[in-house]
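Render this sequence as a predicted structure.
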Amino acid sequence: MVVHALDNYYLAITLLITVGYQLFFFAIAFSFKFDKLTDFAGGTNFAVLAIITLSFSGNDNARQIVASLFIMIWALRLSGFLLFRILKTGKDDRFDDKRDKFFPFLGFWVFQMIWVWTVSLPVTVLNSPNVTKYPQHSFGTGRDIAGIVLYSIGLFMETVSDAQKYRFKSKNQERGALAIYMICVSPAADGYVGGQAYNALYATILGPFFLTILLMFVSGLPLQERPGAKKRYEKGINWEGYANYLNRTSILIPFPPQIYERVPVMLKRTIFLEFPFYVFDPAKHAEQPKPQEEV
């Protein structure tokens, strides 16, 4: 039996569930001043929304079931790995300047609410009564197959990359080493949902767009690239090797390092999306001179 909850696209109910779920974990994290549940709360929220909307839909179409299961598998793998990692490391350096401050710390959780809700939109709307009430193509179309292939590639690459990076960091703590050979992951691959497209489904592209904007301009690369390079430079952590790595490695678009290092800077800053605000220039951005390097 189909459950009609607030609206027939499940937008309001999933938003309310997400806000309540994240605020619950925020209250725990802020009260006890630890980071153990932050990423776990984000990952498992996806699974919760997929389970609820699929259950509400009362639909046994294979497309809805497969898409929902894919989200659950991805979310549980991600949240499980992140929980394991934070239990090993003890804390998340991202929150060192926010953990004790109510509104800055809450701001992160608000972004997490938006992230979960928007990226879940394809499955939320796919499972909603306003979509399932229409006749649908049998499962197994070209778009379904393409979605399964892209999802499988994305999940495999993400899993292997997480394992590689964790093992590398575990074996090379405080030594300034560089992991040059890493699999690159495209997060958009996990967000694909195949199936018949109704007008409402086009709006779900908001999820991938928001995720891309978030990673490129808010909490991903801007917090990692220049600050990370600045830290290495000022602490003398193998800066020369890291600078060479940056020169040879495309920041976002996979490209052979041997060729990329010869690409003109203008093309790197435009076509290859290595925008100037990602780049650390010691002459402009260093607040203290470079000490003698650790090797």
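Summary. Residues 180-198 have pLDDT under 50 and may be disordered. The longest helix spans residues 142-171.
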